[in-house]
Every structure is written in C-alpha cells, then in structure tokens.
Specification:
Elements (H helix, E strand, L loop, with lengths): L2 E5 L5 H11 L3 E6 L4 H9 L4 E5 L5 H15 L2 E6 L16 H29 L2 E8 L10 H21 L4 E8 L12 H14 L4 E3 L7
Parallel strand pairs: 1-2, 1-4, 2-3, 4-5, 5-6, 6-7
C-alpha cells in the first residue's frame, strides 16, 4: 500500500480527494494544523486507511517530520497534494499589503511546498513513481491586485513547480498544478469537492502537462 498525503486537509476538497484515492486503495495521510482527527475517523469508518498528523506548512521542520511520520505509519508517499487555504492577510488589496504579509505568503506558498517536496521526493524516486499536485486559485495564473499576497506567492510557487515538473519527470515523478478559478461550492456539481477530486485523480492517472484549469479562467 502506498500513501496519499494531503497538505491542508479539511472537510471540503481534502476530504473528497481522500475518499477518491481511498477508493483506489491508497492509504491517506491528512496533514493540518488541527491534526484532522475527526476526518480521519470518518474515513476509517468508511473503510479507508487514514490517519491525521498535526503540521503547520509555515513550520518547515514540523512539516517534514509529520510527512516522515506519515510514511512510517502508512507506507511510502506516492502522491502529495499541496492545498492549504491561504490566510486572510494574503488576500488584501495591493496597497494594504505589507512587507510582512508578502513574506508570510511566500513562506506559506513557496517554502511550504519546497519543504514537503524535499521530504517526499527521495521516497518517490525509490518507488520509481510519484505525483505532486498543487491546487491554486485563479491568481496563480493571473495576478489580481485585490489579493496581492496570493498573487505574488502563487507566482513563486508556480515557477518552482513548473521547474520541478521538468526536472523530476525523467525520474517517474509527475508534478502538476490545478487552478480552480471559481469559488468552491458544495451545491455546484462543477466546483464541489468531488468534482475537483475527480480532476486531481485524472491528473495522477494521465500525467500530462503541467498547468490545468478546473474551469476556464474568467475574462479579466
């Protein structure tokens, strides 16, 4: 059994992705600041092997340790999804965004995934296969001055991930970015958690291209 690790696991997209991969026989490691114990319990009751692990993506040491613990407890990490929800201070208009806000956003959206990838990549190379999917909002593709922090930080995350896509592809590791431009709504069959989870699963299976849009990016 190999493991799906979800960074920023919660009751919406994270839970849906956990269920989609769990149905395919993956163990699921749920990483969040709270430890995601309730969600792990729900998945276990549904017959999915799942455990929660406490980790803050801005604490690189704890993040790496939690991923190591997950692999030891559940099996090698074959799939990593990086999808924590940005903090409110990353979503301020440009002229209200401070230097500290930008530094924190970059720590969240760039340093976090770098730390996670560096932890799981050796195991993926040992397996001879692996998938890393980064889930971002529309500002990753089109900077938006209304949400300056994510616009700057997602640009850095995108550049890192695109380079990673090219560098580790020959090792059998696929890196892709899924951009979800519209709000995630559980009452919308196009943008609800299960629909996004199916898209993540299709990226893992097809392993084609780097940047994908869940829905078209609205006109500027």
């Amino acid at each position: 059994m190999t493991t799906l690790a979800i960074m920023g696991a919660g009751p919406g997209v994270g839970a849906a992705v956990a269920r989609r991969f769990g149905r395919e026989g993956f163990a699921v490691a749920l990483l969040s600041r709270s430890g995601a114990g309730d969600l792990a319990g729900e998945l276990t009751a549904e017959g999915i092997t799942a455990r929660g692990f406490a980790a803050d993506v801005r604490d690189r040491t704890r993040l790496a340790s939690a991923l190591a613990d997950a692999a030891a407890a559940l099996g090698p990490i074959e799939v990593l999804q990086y999808s924590p929800i940005p903090a409110r201070e990353f979503l301020r208009p440009l002229l209200e965004t401070t230097h500290d806000d930008l530094a924190a956003a970059v720590e969240f959206s760039l340093h976090g995934p770098v730390a996670a990838v560096q932890q799981v990549l050796p195991g993926m190379r040992d397996l001879g296969r692996g998938t890393v999917v980064l889930v971002n909002g529309g500002s990753a593709a089109r900077p938006n001055p209304a949400v300056a922090g994510t616009s700057v930080a997602f640009a850095a995350e995108s550049a890192y991930a695109r380079m990673l896509h090219e560098v580790v592809g020959p090792d059998g590791v696929y890196v892709g970015q899924l951009i979800v431009p519209r709000a995630i709504r559980e009452d919308d069959p196009v943008t609800n958690g299960p629909a996004i989870a199916e898209h993540v699963w299709s990226l893992h299976r097809s392993r084609e291209g780097f940047r994908h849009f869940h829905t078209p990016l609205p006109d500027a």
